[in-house]
Design a protein that fits this description.
Elements: E1 4-10, H1 13-25, E2 30-33, E3 51-56, H2 60-72, E4 77-78, E5 85-86
Antiparallel strand pairs: 1-3, 2-3, 4-5
């Protein structure tokens, strides 16, 4: 019996591999299913091009927590000091260097 369970369905291979790398960096084992179907773009239905991320069943709660943190980090934020809009992956304002408010 396979002990892996679906965690997430990524829209494309790039998103899937970014999340996979973030989870593996935290010590989780991740499998991808469907990454080879990207070549069928335009010819296959969109839902068949999703890449499924699977994690070990016992690691699912931790993986869900890490996924939520990863997704939250992608949310853009506005600098309180200079008003500049920053992409979510910036830990400090790219314009003035200020740290975002928590």
């Amino acid at each position: 019996m396979d002990s892996f369970i679906e965690l997430y369905r990524a829209n494309n291979v790039l998103e899937a591999n970014a999340i996979k790398g973030a989870l593996e960096h935290q010590g989780l084992m991740v499998r991808l299913l469907g990454e080879a179907l990207g070549g069928g773009a335009g010819e296959l239905p969109m839902e068949t091009q999703e890449v499924r991320l699977l994690v070990e069943r016992c690691a699912l709660p931790r993986a869900q927590e890490l996924l939520a943190h990863y997704q939250q980090s992608l949310v853009p934020w506005q600098c309180a000091d200079c008003g500049e809009q920053n992409d979510g992956h910036f830990e400090t304002c790219w314009r003035c260097g200020a740290v975002p408010e928590s």
